[in-house]
Design brief:
The protein has a single domain, classed as 2-Layer Sandwich (Alpha-Beta Plaits). 36% of the residues lie in helices and 13% in strands. It is built from six helices and four strands; from the N terminus they run E-H-E-E-H-H-E-H-H-H. It has a four-stranded antiparallel sheet, with helices on one face. A hairpin with a 3-residue loop joins strand 2 and strand 3. Helix 1 crosses helix 2. The termini are far apart.
Length: 188
């Protein structure tokens, strides 16, 4: 059995990957995107943190958080976000995937993967590499031709800050016949 150990770095900067249960494309739904945003905002009111970068894809998200000085409890924050989102999503009639009887007896729901991946960021070079990874992710997964084309990303904020040119990361040529239109992907 794996020995899950979380980093302890009070006031640190962390990169996370959080995935939906069985990679269900939950965030194609505008309601799911709204409820996730609400859960994150509510959590930030209770346990502050700064979102340095984020990208939301249909079945997962990547984000970089900065925790307050002396605080290392990102695990509690993620637990709260996932629990709050799940409660609101199911109350609004959102679907969940079937779970095993063992998972059900452990009170797990078919909305989120149980674990998430975290990595403490050690220096500026690593931060820049992770910003690039986050912002290029919609292009990597074939959801957009350019990072600027993907609405659910902090890319636009980083363009305004001068970190990126607006056309950074564009893929040419882009054959739209091989990809669903953006509106189809996000279910609107």
């Amino acid at each position: 059995m794996p020995n899950w150990r979380r980093a302890f770095l009070p006031g640190g900067m962390f990169f996370f990957t959080v995935v939906t249960y069985q990679r269900h494309p939950l965030f194609q739904s505008s309601l799911a995107r709204q409820l996730l945003g609400d859960a994150i905002r509510k959590t930030r009111q209770i346990q502050p943190f700064t979102i340095e970068a984020i990208v939301l894809l249909p079945d997962h998200l990547h984000t970089i958080w900065a925790l307050p000085r002396g605080d290392a409890d990102f695990s509690g924050r993620w637990s709260w976000i996932k629990r709050e989102f799940t409660t609101q999503w199911l109350a609004a009639g959102g679907a969940e995937k079937d779970t095993t009887s063992a998972q059900s007896s452990d009170r797990r729901r078919g909305v989120w993967q149980r674990k998430y991946w975290e990595h403490s960021i050690s220096d500026e070079d690593e931060m820049i590499a992770l910003l690039d990874y986050i912002h290029f992710n919609p292009v990597k997964h074939g959801h957009a031709r350019c990072p600027a084309d993907w609405e659910w990303s902090s890319f636009h904020k980083w363009v305004r800050r001068g970190q990126y040119e607006p056309d950074w990361g564009c893929r040419e040529p882009f054959d739209e016949s091989k990809h669903a239109p953006l509106k189809e992907i996000v279910g609107e």
